[in-house]
# Entry
Amino acid sequence: MENKILERFGGLIKEEPLSCIENELLIKETCVLESVSPFSSYYNEIYQAKPLYLYLTLDTRPYFEKIMRIINKVKNEVTFHFDIVSAEITLPGNSPYAALRNCQ
# Structure
């Protein structure tokens, strides 16, 4: 039997507090944000362990298709599993920032 991969795309809008990660291992002038309490009402009531969501902000707003091609290329070249998706971060009083979200 042949294995088939089915891809689906969707969107999610959520509001949550983010915190800036400051670490000497990060590339200079890189903005990495961490979700402080993702889906807090769900994880506080159901689970004790919360997923770690990290957001890497981007200087430009690449097309969705370009981001997906890059993600798929990286997934084919590495030996470990990761989950990265396109994201947008909106801060009050600012234009939206393009970002990549990683869930660990």
About this structure: Residues 18-103 form one domain. The two ends are 32 Å apart (CA to CA). The first strand starts at residue 18 and ends at 20.
